[in-house]
Amino acid sequence: MKPSETTDPISLGLPHRPPFVFIQSVDKLEAGLLAQCSKTFARSESFFEGHFPGNAIVPGVLLLEGMAQTAGIAVGGPGKMFLLSAIRFMKFLRPVRPEETITFNAHKLGEVGGLVQCAVEARCSQHLVAEGQIILAEALFP
C-alpha cells in the first residue's frame, strides 16, 4: 500500500459491520505485519450523552476495539479472520475527546499455534493516548 493511499477497512477483510466498525480508514498496511488506521468519533455519537456528560470522552473500550480491529487488519485479510482472545496489558494515558482524530497502530510481535501477539497503540496529534499488547486467535468458521 502506498503511503498516500487510503483504503476501506471492510474491503481488507474486517469482519465487523456498522455500527461496530471503529476505524474509518486504513492509512498504511504491510500485510501480515503492521497496519495504521484512523477514526474520528463525532460529537453526535449517542454514547457521549452518558459517558461523562458535559465532559465527554471516548470510552477506553472503544479505543481498545479500534486497536484490535487495526491488529486484525494487519495480520488478517479477506477470508482470514481473527478474534480478540487476550489483553496482555493496556494503559490509557490521557482522555480522547469527541472530534479528535485517533491514529491506531498495530504490529505483529510473534505467532504460535494460531495465536498472534500484537503491540498496539493509539495517538492523537502524535501524542500517545493508549498502548498495550493483545493476542488474537485465528477464527475457524464453517
Architecture overview:
This protein has 142 residues and is mainly β. The protein has a single domain, classed as Roll (Thiol Ester Dehydrase, Chain A). 11% of the residues lie in helices and 41% in strands. The chain contains one helix and six strands; from the N terminus they run E-E-H-E-E-E-E. It has one helix spanning 60-75, and strands spanning 25-30, 34-40, 82-92, 101-112, 115-124, 127-138. A six-stranded antiparallel beta sheet has the order 1-2-4-5-6-3, covered by helices on one side. A hairpin with a 2-residue loop joins strand 4 (101-112) and strand 5. The chain is globular and about 45 Å long. The mean pLDDT is 92.
Number of domains: 1
* Secondary structural class: mainly beta
- The CATH fourth-level homologous superfamily: Hotdog Thioesterase
Spatial order of the strands in the main sheet? 1-2-4-5-6-3
Broad shape: globular
Brief summary:
The chain is mostly beta strands and 142 residues long.
Supply database-style keywords:
mainly beta, 6 strands, globular, single chain, six-stranded antiparallel β-sheet, 1 helix, 142 residues, Thiol Ester Dehydrase, Chain A
Topology of this protein?
Elements: E1 25-30, E2 34-40, H1 60-75, E3 82-92, E4 101-112, E5 115-124, E6 127-138
Antiparallel strand pairs: 1-2, 2-4, 3-6, 4-5, 5-6
